[in-house]
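Section 5: illustrative case.
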C-alpha cells in the first residue's frame, strides 16, 4: 500500500516537489505505526513484568519521536533558497537525522541500568498468548515499515529515511530476541530477560552511535562516493577536444544540491572563445546528466613545443622512478628556465616534500638539464 501511494505521488508531482511529499508521507506513516506499537508493547510489558518488552516499547516510543523529527526535517528541507540560505535548506535533513541518531543512543543507554538490575535480581516474565501474538504482529509491522522506509529513501535518495529503515530492521531483531527470551523461560525456566534486555541496550546504543557518526560526517562534508566521482569522470572522458582534467572538488549542500569545480586542460592555441565554448558545453551537460552545478577552470597547455614535450616526458620518467603513483598536472616551462607543475601526493608516498624536490633536481642534473623547480604539492584530490 505504501509503495502504491509513493508511486502515485511520483506520477503526480514534479521532481522538485516529490522529495518533500514522499518525506512527509513517510513521516506520518512511521508516526502512526510506531505509536501503535509503543502503546501495545507498553501495555503487555507492564502486564508481563518484562524489562526486555519494556525496553522494546520505549524503543518504539523513540521511533515515534524520530518520525516527528522526519516530518519537521522534510518540512524545513523542502523550503526554497532565500537570502540567508542561498544554497537552500536541504542540509536540515541531516540535522534531523542526527537528532534521530542521538535519541536512539540515549534510549539505548537508559536500559543498561534497568537490565543490570534485572540480571542481579531476576524475576519471572508472565507469559500469555496475547503477549506472544502482539509481539509477532509487531515484528511483521516493523518489517513492513522498514521495507517501506527503504523504498521511499531509495526513491528520493534520503539518508534519513534509509537510517529509519535500518532502525526498523533493528527493531525486528530486538523484538525477535524478546520473543526468544519468553520462549526460553517457558521451556527451560531460565530467567534470561535481564540478559536479553542488556544485549538489546548494547545493540540499540551501538546502532545509534554509528548513525551519529554518519550524520556528523554528512554535516562536516565528507569525501564523495566513488560512484559520484566515477560518473563525473565518465562524463569528462566524452570530450575529445580537452587534453585532461584534474583538481576535482565536490561540495554537497543536501541530497539534491551538489556543486563542483574542476580544472580542464586545453590546447593553448585555442582562442578564448573556443575554450569558453568547450567548458560551457561541459558545464551544461554535467548539470543535465548528473544534476551537479559544475564550474570549470581553464588550464592552457603548450602541446606544440618540442621543449615542452621533451621535458614533460623526462619528468614523467623521473616521477615514475620515485613513485609510480605520483601524478603531475599544470606543467609549464617559464621564460627563466623554471619547470613549474603541481604534484599529487598519494597515500603510498614515503618521501617528504623536500626529499622529492631534491631527488627530482638530482635526476635532472644527471641528464644534464639545467632547470629550476617550482612544485606545488597537492595532498587533497579526488581525480
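Designed sequence:
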Amino acid at each position: 500500500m505504501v509503495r502504491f501511494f509513493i508511486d502515485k505521488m511520483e506520477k503526480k508531482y514534479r521532481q522538485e516537489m516529490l522529495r518533500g511529499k514522499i518525506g512527509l508521507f513517510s513521516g506520518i506513516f512511521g508516526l502512526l505505526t510506531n505509536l501503535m506499537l509503543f502503546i501495545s508493547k507498553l501495555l503487555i510489558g507492564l502486564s508481563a513484568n518484562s524489562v526486555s518488552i519494556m525496553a522494546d516499547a520505549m524503543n518504539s516510543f523513540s521511533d515515534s519521536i524520530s518520525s516527528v523529527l522526519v516530518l519537521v526535517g522534510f518540512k524545513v528541507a523542502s523550503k526554497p533558497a532565500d537570502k540567508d540560505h542561498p544554497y537552500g535548506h536541504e542540509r536540515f535533513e541531516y540535522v534531523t537525522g542526527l537528532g534521530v541518531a542521538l535519541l536512539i543512543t540515549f534510549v539505548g543507554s537508559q536500559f543498561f541500568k534497568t537490565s543490570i538490575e534485572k540480571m542481579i535480581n531476576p524475576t519471572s516474565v508472565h507469559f500469555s498468548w496475547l503477549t506472544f501474538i502482539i509481539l509477532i504482529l509487531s515484528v511483521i509491522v516493523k518489517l513492513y515499515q522498514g521495507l517501506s522506509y527503504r523504498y521511499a529513501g531509495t526513491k528520493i535518495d534520503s539518508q534519513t529515511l534509509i537510517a529509519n529503515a535500518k532502525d526498523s530492521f533493528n527493531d525486528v531483531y530486538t523484538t525477535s530476541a524478546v520473543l526468544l527470551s519468553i520462549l526460553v523461560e517457558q521451556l527451560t525456566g531460565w530467567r534470561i530477560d535481564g540478559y536479553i534486555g542488556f544485549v538489546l541496550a548494547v545493540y540499540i546504543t551501538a546502532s545509534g552511535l554509528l548513525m551519529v557518526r554518519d550524520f556528523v560526517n554528512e554535516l562536516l562534508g565528507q569525501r564523495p562516493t566513488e560512484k559520484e566521482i566515477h560518473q563525473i569522470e565518465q562524463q569528462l572522458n566524452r570530450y575529445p577536444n580537452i587534453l585532461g582534467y584534474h583538481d576535482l572538488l565536490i561540495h554537497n549542500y543536501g541530497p539534491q544540491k551538489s556543486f563542483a569545480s574542476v580544472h580542464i586542460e586545453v590546447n593553448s592555441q585555442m582562442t578564448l572563445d573556443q575554450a569558453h565554448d568547450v567548458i560551457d558545453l561541459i558545464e551544461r551537460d554535467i548539470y543535465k546528466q548528473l544534476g551537479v552545478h559544475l564550474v570549470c577552470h581553464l588550464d592552457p597547455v603548450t602541446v606544440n613545443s618540442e621543449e615542452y614535450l621533451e621535458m614533460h616526458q623526462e619528468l614523467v620518467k623521473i616521477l615514475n622512478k620515485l613513485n609510480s603513483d605520483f601524478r603531475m598536472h599544470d606543467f609549464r616551462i617559464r621564460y627563466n628556465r623554471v619547470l613549474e607543475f603541481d604534484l599529487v601526493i598519494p597515500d603510498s608516498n614515503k618521501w617528504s616534500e623536500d626529499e622529492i624536490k631534491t631527488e627530482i633536481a638530482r635526476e635532472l642534473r644527471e641528464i644534464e638539464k639545467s632547470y629550476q623547480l617550482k612544485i606545488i604539492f597537492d595532498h587533497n584530490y579526488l581525480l
